[in-house]
Design goal:
- The complex is a heterodimer.
- Chain A is mainly α.
- Chain A has 3 helices and no strands.
- The longest helix of chain B is centred in the middle third of the chain and has 8 residues.
- Chain B contains 3 helices and 12 strands; from the N terminus they run ββββαββαββαββββ.
- In chain B, the strands form 3 sheets. In chain B, strands 4-3-12-7-8 form a 5-stranded mixed sheet. In chain B, strands 5, 6, 9, 10 and 11 form a 5-stranded antiparallel sheet that branches.
Chain lengths: ~80, ~200
Amino acid sequence: MDKKLVRKIIHWGLLVIIIIFIITGLGIARYRIIESITLGLLIKPISFQVHTYLIFPLIIFLYLHILLTWKKKKKR
Amino acid sequence: MTNFSEEIFELDTVELSEYQGEQLSSIYDFRENSIRGPQYVSREKYRLRVTGLVNNTYNLTYDEIINSFHSSKKIITLFCVEGWEVKILWEGVMVRDLIELAEPLPEATTIIFYAYDGYSTSFPLECITDNNIIMAYKMNNVTIPPERGFPFQLVAESKWGYKWIKWITSIELSDNTDYKGYWESRGYSNNADLDKGFFEE
């Protein structure tokens, strides 16, 4: 796989994960607001489960993101 | 010696921070996460209704409950699924005593609690009667404030926090073992045991 493509996937993937992580985190701590904004689609239990399942991918993507960025800096 | 005053002043109760050597959390350490925000129930107008599969359906006022039943005190920690916990000295009446007064029918297997804001939760009847579960009216020696569940909060020891229903207005004895309360019908475990996960498997 093209290295540039891999980097893009990692960087954008991390951004998406972080955004979902924040939203689901708010869906736990401020669930009344999030439930009304999402018209009842993102309820607290769902936020909780998604938030929990995202922890491991977040760590992996963050690690890869740092690794790829650090390697790129080193090459320069 | 001169008596400066013959009057007896009743001082406001002070929140305890320690009880029998155990440090307590503050009643302000709770996070407000109720489904419709704090509820303000009138002490004068309040009635606890006990109904369902019983021989004796009854209503009691707040003062009738406080004054008619033996009260118990216990330090119990509430564990919320959000990850926080509070250790509080709870004082209240045994739910078992309220149930006994109602004379449950033999087919009653489930006890359902309803709250002022529409929240509800349920337990197997023996879970309440066998485990000295109290319905608290005081926390850390002060009357439960409205924000924390006045007039009564269930102290569902060994259960996750969503079972600790606040602003209790009625108790129903039922034979519906499949009844699911507010969070339970949204995917949380109906058992809510602390030593297990809180999502329905």
